[in-house]
Write a structure and sequence with these properties.
The structure is a homotetramer. The radius of gyration of chain A is 24 Å and the shape is elongated. In chain A, α2 packs across α12 and α6 crosses α7. Helix content of chain A is 35%, strand content 16%. In chain A, the strands form three sheets. Chain A has a nine-stranded mixed β-sheet with strand order 2-4-16-15-10-9-6-7-8, sandwiched between helices. Chain A has a four-stranded parallel β-sheet with strand order 12-13-11-14, with helices on both faces. The first copy, chain A, has a two-stranded antiparallel ribbon with strand order 1-5. By secondary structure, chain A is α/β, with parallel strands linked by helices. In chain A, α2 links the parallel β6 and β7. Chain A has two domains: 243 residues, Rossmann fold, CATH 3.40.50; 156 residues, Phosphofructokinase domain (Rossmann fold). At the A-B interface, β2, β3, β4, α2 and α6 of A face β2, β3, β4, α2 and α6 of B. β2 of chain C pairs antiparallel with β3 of chain D.
Chain lengths: 440, 440, 440, 440
């Protein structure tokens, strides 16, 4: 993960509202520990001993998040908007709660509007009324999953109409909680806002339950997702262990990155195979999954398989290609593997008891586990500090255990993947005892 | 946390068994991703933008943990010992399990002894029999708290007798799971081993539920401890909220560092005061705890206080000094504050309903939460890789999200404290809304 | 438990508002399954085969609870009051929620007042404002422990002032959720209400976390209490098991009845001694607790003891008698046993590691487990049906799996105890393997 | 539920091993509270006040379970077998554990064999080795779900071969833990055993996660199942609540009886429709599900539907009938309703966000919740008492809160259903606010 990404202003542009009038803080004077704009964090910490020592360029450093001694917006002029977009993720309400409380208590902001149901909530045709937010309103929302604002997909591409709405509502601070697409939308909004010469801070809190965001060390909700997914694997193990030639097959989230699957394999200690998008595998042949599964069953009578939803897509495509009978396409790799396993052992006249578990929505709708709840609170607070100090086009992220400002363009430029050479995957191999390679 | 600690060999000495005969690995040839000895990690990531760029010295870099291509010990000659010392901590069994499995499966080691009940288990007068360990024996132990080996305090200072036992048992690889004192003992063992010219790798896995170990980003068991402590605070809040002038007072672990208290305040979202050793506070006077508590009760009718066991020790000493009647000293700050609060409101003729909760052992005896379970597995695996490659006098730690080798001397040199100027404490202040300072 | 209690009208008096004008139900016409006043339930089901068959007298039958076809109160005239008294118990909010929803949805009642902080909330000197309740207000309250109305002890003896307040507020339906004292107070209220010739239904939902109410099969919150107490015993077992001569000592609720202790011993499967008020035990001597504990430790190295707070009171009294130095009395049996065990093994020069756990408020403040939540909903619904049909001086209870009307006088007449000859205690003896008797 | 079932010996035959030689108990002399064979429990407790009092006939009374003063089998001659059959159910391991411990500790039995993988484990072609059981072996098994013996379907109909195996292994006490089919098989075994004049006690512990066994008040595992199902409904509610026109659809177990669905509706407090096999419903038309769902969405924006797997089968059949294209039959009512709802709103051009959750195996594989764990222990103990005293062809059940002997023939004669006129269903209607009838 030795990135050569250049975080410098020259490369990414200014992530601050242009007109630098700043007010000294009154309501928030109880704040401890102001942060200066020149405090930075090294992003890439890998080095080679004995190599020629080299200096850090500005492009390797990220701005430290936190409250600034001078704020850009006077509290009584602030109208903040908060929007949650895309699929659910544990911790959304914790982030909302922290934003509202920090604005209210630390800065004295009194106008905070929740945009209902994602970006669509700003579009006229949905005719939705913003939700007035205050500390009482959000006091207990961390105890429930989901988002009290509601969420939806789409709408973010209608930049001009969204900025029209922002202008109409007099919102001058927008917090966008969402994934890749949401933050790309936020960036477009910020550009249009600049074009119209408005003074609106756009701050994103990146959301990806798959933990596939590069540059940050962990996305919020991920710990909770792994904890819930682990419960599903324990169920699968119990079923497999209690049957003659029992096979538990669990499908987990992970479209392009297998972090949930990998961590769940480690946390559950019960999986014998962990299949992820980053590590292709054969199903058939002497070194394929089916043969290894058969060996495992002969030795231990039961087996548990975790498969990330994005794993083995090449098999699905070929399956689709060869299936010419007009039946509808195979739904997913989980269902596909289930059928392939059953067929394989049928053909061998070996009875297996396969139990298929897809925990699906029960994972993403969970309330945040304590570590995630702490993380979300701190993301929300730092988002508020960023907005109040006039930052814009910025995400809040955790890098090397420090909260930093991450320019939106870099966050949407590339994804994070499980590196098959990494210590994480090495530890998964140790935990599952699966072959390092299942290629013939 | 801008440390000027020098991790260089010149400063800390060689952390490797002296005789560098190395075998190429056979049993573990399935291992992916070997690590080279020159792969390093930057420890201190804080920098100032615009400051004169400076190069890293070797003293700022930590060796990356992981399997080496060549091992020092041939598997069939290995007799590994594992010992757990001191108080319980969530995840002990997960670490033991990982060590046993990694030795067995990845390296083919077949002689693994669990030392019963800490260092004392090696002393002749206890007459205890080592526990033979193998993957079957440890298969399910991650599901229970505590340590299957048993633990105890003390014994680690009897260096010569311990090395006698190690020699007698032919142990050539010792894994010490324990706190400060345990690792100091391990260092003394390693020095005596060197003096006797034995080839024994001593690898420590640092254990501190208080998270007060400097140089690593988080100690194992900490997430679980916070999760359990949060449950106690939720109880306190429920009691306080259901009573007229209800006060919930929760005493948490934290002798010298208030990390559990601080994180629990954030995770629970229900504490109004968080008292830690690092931030002194007055009890009496216009800016003291009692007056602020009274204000809070007048405004909101109820209040929740978290107090770390090491907080406010100055009050206990003065209390002890003024109490001349010969009664035994006050047990702890929790009990002391409880009495002071009751007396104060009695003196004002205001009835309060104080509920005191000390979750004590229910926190440290919990089974590891999923995030800790993953962390412990990986600590154990990396400890095995270190020992097999002939490292010694080394702890395994997580630094900037990489597992590293941490020379024992530096780990026992200084502690980690909550910095009152840090973003962590700032976020606690936001969460509790307590005064930044309670000094008159 | 072969009661000879006489439930007949002749014995207990009329539990119905005297003036029998009844309205036919309009709002609630969607109700299924009306119940007739002559539907009864046999209370005592034990019989002897071959004995002379005997008929049931009216005094052996309890009235079945449920909606009546005709109601006494027209919905628009109803002003319902709900009060929660005494210590917290899991499920209080579930009962409140059910009462509010059933009144509102099934009967169309629109005036429902929550009395704050117990009976005291009706007394003028507290100057408290009733809480207006409706389905939206109570929608999520089952997710939290405690009582949203608040609770307090006392006040129930000031009958005349309470009825003054009821009259002043025009309350004609009072739901009293509380223990023995609360329901005695409710009975006094009902008598004073009759004396003043008011038409007010007084319906009680009995609350006793100790499950010590005779005539009903289980009190609400009990399952949850056992589940939480079991967690404490698991902690104690982990601590004991991980130490040399480890002893885990857990103090549980149970002033006069040991049901929580007994069920927790069964549910945890880890206790070796279960001490309850109903079964006296010696501490010293050849058949005393200390000697048996010593034996257990010699055989198995560790032991877990559950002690109900009301157990072994005779030892505390004698201790108090012999302690003539003027120190204040011993706090409780838990602390006392802890000291006795430590002293005993000190005197034998045997080191024990005793860990004392008092889960206290964490048990009673828990949110209701699903079984309790279901039970509470149904108690609340049946309380509403009783009140609407003009019943009064009546508790709602579950008897032989049917919800029934239980006249208050019988509920406050006697308690329920663990019978040392019962199958419950027999199963506890099997689970703990403790001696049937610890009397010398 | 006013059964006229006749439990009398004349009707059901002798449930005792014929040759009445009995030994007085030696090993178990520590047992408290012996039970006499003439102690009985009234089954049906419903009565009508004022009706002619009538006596109990022997046919209305059930024999009380528990230890008898004289046992039929001397402990040293006992070889006990335990078999678990059919699908998993929370608590299986708790029952096994109790049987082993009670046999061993209370009666001194030392030969206990676990039959692997159901009745099939006794058939020669599977060539499976029995598992030797003792208290150490089962000490921690209550902490995991499933059955340590393994389970499977079928085999129970091969009566003669099974009795051959029982004879070959010298088993004289067989504990059959399983459902309807298992107990029918057990009855056939007992008859064949009688025919061969063998002295083998056959005692069943009825297992049905659906709680559809008549004559007992609750089947083991049911509380746990409801608790787990409730989690799925909470997820569905979170998803529904966070989306525009969000619909959460949860499919739960319940082939012929809707108890899990009904209790989960009550426990979750979040379902708006609960569909069970016992209450037919229309999907289309002015009073059908779709129209009511639409109304609910218009009023509250979101909705949650629970559907038991056996509900609405008439719709599936008609669907199957009209589908003549040769596609395979519709999988289940959950998938069918999902499609119907989507199609309906598509046809109205109303976008709904439907999230479908099928918690499936995660429910039945859960470890037992504390209430179930207690229940299972006591079932197991009473099964042992029954077998030791020479009972046979008998199930252990809980009736009116007493453990009783239930002759197998009556348990397999009829099922238990949710009565649409019962107070349970009435309370579900109150909780969901769904129409009492959805028939046009």
């Amino acid at each position: 993960m030795s990135d050569t990404q250049d975080f410098s202003v020259e490369n990414l542009g200014q992530c601050k509202i242009s007109n630098p009038i700043e007010y000294s803080l009154v309501a928030g004077d109880s704040l401890a520990g102001y942060v200066n704009d020149d405090e930075r964090i090294v992003h890439d910490v890998a080095r080679t001993a004995g190599a020629e020592p080299r200096s850090f360029t500005s492009g390797e450093l990220l701005e430290l998040a936190g409250p600034r001694e001078k704020v850009y917006f006077p509290a009584k002029h602030v109208h903040a908007g908060i929007v949650t977009c895309g699929g659910l993720c544990p911790g959304l309400n914790d982030v909302i709660r922290a934003i509202v409380r920090c604005l209210w208590h630390q800065y004295g902001v009194r106008r905070i509007s929740g945009i209902p149901f994602g970006y669509n909530g700003l579009l006229p045709e949905f005719n939705l009324t913003p939700i007035e937010l205050n500390p009482d309103e959000v006091d207990d929302i961390h105890k429930i999953g989901g988002t009290i604002l509601g969420s939806s997909r789409g709408g973010g591409e209608r930049t001009e109409e969204l900025v029209d709405a922002i202008q109409r509502m007099n919102i001058n601070m927008l917090f966008t909680i969402g994934g890749d697409g949401t933050q790309k939308g936020a960036l477009a909004l910020a550009h249009e806002i600049e074009r119209r010469n408005l003074k609106v801070a756009v701050i994103g809190i990146p959301k990806t339950i798959d933990n596939d965001l590069r540059f940050i060390q962990k996305s919020f909700g991920f710990d909770t997702a792994v904890a819930k997914a682990t419960e599903a694997v324990v169920s699968a193990h119990t079923e497999a262990h209690s049957a003659i030639f029992g096979v538990g097959l669990v499908r987990l989230m992970g479209r392009e990155s297998g972090f949930i699957a990998a961590h769940t394999a480690l946390a559950s200690h019960e999986a014998n195979f962990c299949l992820i998008p980053e590590v292709p595998f054969e199903i058939d042949g002497p070194n394929g999954l089916l043969e290894h599964l058969h060996q495992r069953l002969r030795q231990r009578n039961h087996a548990v398989i975790i498969v990330a939803e994005g794993a083995g897509q090449e098999h699905l495509q070929s399956a689709e290609a060869t299936d010419a009978s007009g039946n509808k396409r195979l739904g997913d790799i989980g269902v596909y593997l289930k059928q392939r396993i059953i067929d394989y052992f049928d053909s061998l006249k070996v009875g297996v008891n396969l139990k298929y578990i897809d925990p699906s929505y029960t994972i993403r709708s969970a309330e945040a586990a304590p570590t995630d709840s702490v993380y979300c609170s701190r993301l929300g607070n730092n988002a508020v500090h960023a907005a109040m100090s006039g930052k814009t086009k910025t995400l809040i992220g955790l890098v090397n255990n420090h909260f930093v400002h991450l320019p939106i363009p870099i966050a949407v430029a590339s994804r994070n993947y499980v590196d098959p050479e990494s210590s994480l995957w090495r530890d998964v191999i140790e935990a599952t005892q699966q072959p390092v390679s299942m290629k013939n």
